[in-house]
């Protein structure tokens, strides 16, 4: 029988994502509703090792729903990757009387949660990463806001690119996954989108789309590049050498992580936070809360970490179908 949960620790770890604060708020207020105390662990797993914490109350999380980033801060911890570091973290839980930990983050965060669960700490994970690459969940907190930030930036870039008849290469986040780039590319009507999951064929993926766009009347071109598919400046140099294009590179960088979370991220984070506390109150732990077909699901952490999310090829097909093309009897 699972141990009764009286005190929950909550932390955010890895890269920050818009909506993390909404999840923190939901966990704290849901814990209070279920008669539990909530301890905020600052700076992720590092904070658990170093006893960097604060008692969270309902008033502590007032007015944070609309804030980006995370009020608990986040950090990566090399020490936590060692057995000694994890033992310190578990000892902190014992010292503070923490019965369970709710960990908000991505794949690395959940691997850390799995390790301490094997050492006797009950854990629940909430997926928050702008890459949307957690296999057990259709959606992760922060993705929608990051997409909107990219789209707004690219719409502004398009205005000046069109005025100067230039090619714009926009590099977005996505070291191992192209979900963000593909979603954004469709939304802005990109000339080409390059993602890590599809091996680059420069002639097929870049040259022909640009040629078709030019022959059908376009004088400016937009290429969206996931960082894991190549570097924007290398691509711009190649465009200059092979097509004579004046390509300008914009690396959106960490601006993608910031800003007030969208309605979707606030609502999803709130539901996930509540579901995490409810699971613990009903004796379920060592799971990740995810979304599937509009509802929330719980997946055991080990099973979840073994799952891999693949790029939705139907979206890639949409992108290909909506590109500027010549009539069938024309040849480029």
Describe the model.
This protein has helices at 20-33, 44-49, 83-96, 107-117, 143-164, 179-188, 202-215, 232-243, 263-281, 301-306, 313-321, and strands at 7-12, 37-41, 53-56, 100-105, 122-127, 167-172, 192-194, 221-226, 247-251, 287-292, 295-300. It folds into two domains: 7-142 and 261-306, 3-Layer(aba) Sandwich (Rossmann fold), CATH 3.40.50; 144-257, Rossmann fold (3-Layer(aba) Sandwich), CATH 3.40.50. The protein is elongated. Helix 4 links the parallel strand 4 (100-105) and strand 5 (122-127). The protein has 332 residues and is α/β, with parallel strands linked by helices. Helix content is 41%, strand content 18%. It contains eleven helices and eleven strands.
Largest sheet composition: 7 strands, mixed
Number of strands: 11
Query: How many angstroms separate the termini?
Result: 69 Å
Count helical runs.
11
Principal-axis shape equals elongated
Structural class: alpha/beta
Number of structural units classed as domains: 2
Spans of at least 5 consecutive residues whose pLDDT stays below 50 are none
**Percentage of residues in DSSP E strands:** 15-25%
Radius of gyration computed on alpha carbons: 22 Å
Q: From N to C, what is the helix and strand string?
A: EHEHEHEHEHEHEHEHEHEEHH
